[in-house]
Amino acid sequence: MTRSITIFDTTLRDGTQGEGISLSADDKLKIAVRLDELGVHYIEGGNPGSNGKDVEFFRRVRELNLKAKITAFGSTRRKGGSAEDDENLRRIAESGAQAATLVGKSWDFHVHTALQTTLEENLAMIEDSISYLKRSGLEVIFDAEHFFDGFKHNAEYAKSVLRAASEAGADWLVLCDTNGGTMPDEIGSTVAALVREMPAVRFGIHTHNDCELAVANSLSAVAAGALQVQGTINGYGERCGNANLCSVIPNLQLKQGLKCLPEEKLAQLSSAARYVSEIANVHMPAGQPYVGSAAFAHKGGIHVSAILRDSRTYEHIAPELVGNKQRVLVSELAGQSNLVSKAQELGIELDPKSPQAADTIGRIKDLEHRGYQFEGADASLELLLREAGGEVRELFTFESFKMLVEKSAGKPVVSEAFVKLRIGGESLYTAGEGNGPVNALDNALRKALLQYYPQLTDMHLSDYKVRVLDDKEATASKVRVLIESRDADSAWSTVGVSGNVIEASWEALVDSMRYALLGQEPALPVAAAEPRPGLLNH
């Protein structure tokens, strides 16, 4: 029978302790719904005794009727007190959560230094707190903080902490590598010894990533007998983060045959990871295993030639199993296989033996030699391929643009752009102000095009990146500009390169609008019947 592993997600609690991550109550509720759809077993929502945001979360999450067990977090009662009189424990009991995660000290050094109490009082704090929560009707998960450090320093006391928690009624004993400094072999041998010594206990594992080993340590613990893994989506968490569930889950389920999520839910993993990164407003690394956009991306011509025959040649799993997809990158390393595959992906007919294919590869290689990069600018690449096939009609004829940037003492910088174009034989001269020269250019160009292409109203620039290509040239260096644009349905990226950042931005900006308008026909402007040698719009 397949062994099942319980997945405990702490993105909403431990994950928010990561630098740069802050979630509102609404954010946490949205993520909780997505985690529940993914099929995790526990969702730790936060500490209802610590702040109003978490109090609001626990109040509102009851209305969602989620299948996962909503879990409240807290620590053992204060030294010298009683659980019944502890305000934080009372709030956990009244939170409406089905389960409670209670953290307690298992390292004698921490008991003496952090709690400044006796080893006996620490055990009493653990027993009293767990008993109180069990009497309140909650499932109790005891997180033994700094367990592996404590076990190495004083194994008998660390085990006495586990025994005290178990005898008080804890449903799970979770061993925490809180400082993230333990090696996988140590994790495995320690967990295996405890499983033999305490066979009736259900053990879990909670690891941090300070040595880049949180996932490996989680797998090692499961191999030794742990039945629950705690972690976060995308590995968010304090310092270097927590165990990344987006790697833990497929490693356990696809590589080791253990059941973590329902099989049909596993295919939601990539979209869930990206959704959480969007809500958290944290860039998701392209090379993140399993769920990153580059996890199944192929660039080398030999690789692409092989995967077109059989993807198993360079892919360890089918990307669709985790909801990801294969991508073929086109660059100066590419061969005809890359280009043909990319064209097929876009629905473009391209004969690999044609002069057209050779010319397009040559053009791409020349552009990349000059500093262009199409791996992160799929829209610019698609425009190149469609141009080669004669599918792209020019939207306008560019004549000139001018920039005015003015800074006066005591006043903010003012940027204004003037753009001169020709559309359908008509000359247009538009001006726009903006928060910086690129925004001013965007506004001026948009004013001209909106008269003919009103659908651009729904499009906006969502990200802008500049990279210096040769820092030895200092301020005279070439720069590469990547622009991400969005509309109601999708996002796309374009690239521009120049020794002038404004010119590079203009190239990327024009491509973004050309891509948005692929296949569109211009509308007749409202005042087209009037003779107009030019337009000046402010």
Automatic annotation (TrEMBL):
Cross-referenced PROSITE patterns: AIPM_HOMOCIT_SYNTH_1, PYR_CT
Catalytic activity: pyruvate + acetyl-CoA + H2O = (3R)-citramalate + CoA + H(+)
Known EC number: 2.3.3.21
The UniProt record lists the keyword Transferase: yes
Keyword check for Transferase: yes
Keywords of the record: Amino-acid biosynthesis, Branched-chain amino acid biosynthesis, Isoleucine biosynthesis, Transferase
Pfam families assigned: HCS_D2, HMGL-like, LeuA_dimer
InterPro entries reported in the protein's UniProt record: 2-isopropylmalate_synth_dimer, AIPM/Hcit_synth_CS, Aldolase_TIM, Citramal_synthase, LeuA/HCS_post-cat, LeuA_allosteric_dom_sf, PYR_CT
Gene3D superfamilies reported in the protein's UniProt record: 1.10.238.260, 3.30.160.270, Aldolase class I
Enzyme class: transferase
SMART domains, sorted: LeuA_dimer
Listed pathway(s): Amino-acid biosynthesis; L-isoleucine biosynthesis; 2-oxobutanoate from pyruvate: step 1/3
Domain Pyruvate carboxyltransferase: 5-267
Family: Belongs to the alpha-IPM synthase/homocitrate synthase family.
Protein name: Citramalate synthase
